[in-house]
Write a structure and sequence with these properties.
Oligomer: single chain
CATH topology of the largest domain: Uridine Diphospho-n-acetylenolpyruvylglucosamine Reductase, domain 3
Strand content: 15-25%
Distance between the termini: 26 Å
CATH architecture of the largest domain: 2-Layer Sandwich
Strand order of the largest sheet: 15-12-14-13-17-18-16
Number of domains: 4
Radius of gyration: 22 Å
Number of strands: 18
Number of helices: 16
Structural class: alpha+beta
Shape: globular
Low-confidence stretches: none
CATH class of the largest domain: Alpha Beta
């Protein structure tokens, strides 16, 4: 009996099982430079019991199983390195409950952040993590995604109160509660957050929600050099102002975004800033931020007060990746996402720009500098092996510099296959403990094998 026939015993609806070539391609390639590899089959569960039975079958037959949200991960996390079952959660997209009084939502993993926030807006609540794309909550949990709001609200990990997880042997466990904090036992949920589908598969996620602020005020300030922009960002953070968003977008990225979205932003190294709160708080915060920008020799400081202006600015930031891709047709992107201590941010950004210029290659630098996280995006011609080798060498220099500064090789994109070589440098002997945890939770190595942690299986 072949794999498709075996799956039909669990998923009796044939429309939720596919070996169609185009579907396999969709689930076997990513958005960036990583080599595609096809699954053997794509399955669309609707209930946790179906996930449980599929995992039990996969474990018994030692078949790899790879969770799939919308395929927006940037380090190849959803590419099946060893074939097997791609478990697509697009039909497990129910918002199970919302408790507005307790600021809690319970969702299935296929719910997207956009879907959730649309559901919440009439309740005066929102889910703050915004990685740019309309990713699923399950995928965001798997990579501990962050985004533009992380400087104020924290990352995905900070929003998760509880998880329901199917383990590799088919057991379903719950970790966490509806309480806002706990000192009860080991925090197992935190092991699964950021584990990239290698320790268990989410079937239910309990989230912390936040009230929508009364006022948002957005500003865009331009600088002659990228180090001026980085230093200004540092000074704004050190001022103690509770900034809502603080994004760096370099001149190359602005130029690409202008062309892609038909905008006319000044082509200069820029900071996109948002303050939120009461009207009085926001007004006072923006005044201090403007003074700091002036002290760092900003070329201009412009407000966006109307709804269209605000949405245009943040759409420009979110579309940066697509704009860069459009500027380099036929090429694939590599996006580093190092994160450094805030005080090291200006130097790290300048080092990255220096490395790029030394290699005489076009690159864009932008990122969530409010928490020390920035990206260097390189366009790669995969038909030219030297292009990939050059990009990998640049990536390594930027990562090594971040690690030397006490930072991390990934602030939000995760490890996938692209960053595994840096885990030993960053984590030392604790990497062995990670491998032992992987072996304990998944002794047959069926859960997203080849991603994040390499075991001896």
């Amino acid at each position: 009996m072949n794999l498709q026939e075996q799956m039909m015993k669990i998923i009796t609806d044939a429309s939720r099982i596919s070996t169609n070539e185009s579907i396999l391609q969709q689930h076997g390639t990513g958005l960036t430079y990583h080599e595609g590899k096809l699954p053997d089959i794509v399955v669309y569960p609707k209930e946790k019991e179906e996930v449980q039975e599929i995992v039990r079958f996969a474990d018994a037959n030692e078949i790899p199983i790879v969770p799939f949200g919308v395929g927006s991960s940037l380090e190849g996390q959803t590419i099946p390195q060893h074939g097997g079952i791609s478990l697509d959660f697009s039909q497990m997209n129910e918002i199970i409950s919302v408790d507005a009084e307790d600021f809690i939502a319970v969702v299935q993993p296929g719910v997207t952040r956009g879907q959730l926030n649309e559901h919440l807006k009439n309740k005066g609540l929102f889910f703050p993590v915004d990685p740019g794309v309309d990713a699923t909550i399950g995928g965001m949990t798997a990579t501990n995604a962050s985004g533009t709001n992380s400087v104020k609200y924290g990352v995905t990990r900070d929003q998760i109160l509880a998880l329901e997880v199917v383990l590799a042997d088919g057991r379903i466990i719950k970790s966490g509660s509806h309480a806002m904090k706990s000192s009860s036992g080991y925090s197992l949920k935190d092991l699964f957050i950021g584990s990239e589908g290698t320790l268990g598969i989410f079937t239910e996620i309990t989230l912390r929600l936040h009230g929508i602020p009364e006022e948002h005020l957005v500003a865009r300030t331009c600088f002659s050099t990228i180090d001026q922009a980085g230093t200004a960002a540092l000074q704004m953070l050190q001022s103690g102002i509770p900034i809502g968003k603080l994004e760096l977008v370099d001149a190359d990225t602005i130029e690409a975004v202008n062309k892609y979205l038909q905008l006319d932003f000044p082509i200069a190294h820029s900071l996109f800033i948002e303050c939120s709160g009461s009207k009085q708080e926001v007004t006072e915060q923006i005044k201090v931020i403007q003074e700091i920008a002036k002290l760092e020799s900003c070329k201009s400081f412009d407000y966006e007060s109307d709804t269209l202006g605000k949405s245009t600015l943040w759409d420009a930031r979110h579309q940066a990746g697509m704009a860069i891709a459009a500027a380099h047709p036929g090429k694939k992107l590599m996006s580093t996402d190092v994160c450094v201590p805030i005080s090291s941010l200006p130097e790290a950004i300048m080092h990255a720009r220096q490395v790029v210029e030394e290699n005489e290659i076009s690159a864009s630098i932008f990122g969530h500098v409010g928490d020390g996280n920035f990206h260097v995006v390189l366009a790669i011609d995969l038909e030219n092996p030297s292009s990939l080798d050059q990009a990998l060498a640049i990536n390594e220099k930027i990562v090594q510099n971040a690690l030397h500064a006490g930072g991390t090789c990934s602030g939000e994109h995760g490890i996938g296959t692209g960053k595994r070589q840096y885990l030993t440098i960053e984590h030392g002997k604790s990497l062995q403990v990670m491998k032992e945890l992987k072996t304990h939770f998944d002794p047959k190595n069926i859960l997203n094998p080849g991603i994040l942690i390499e075991t001896n299986n």
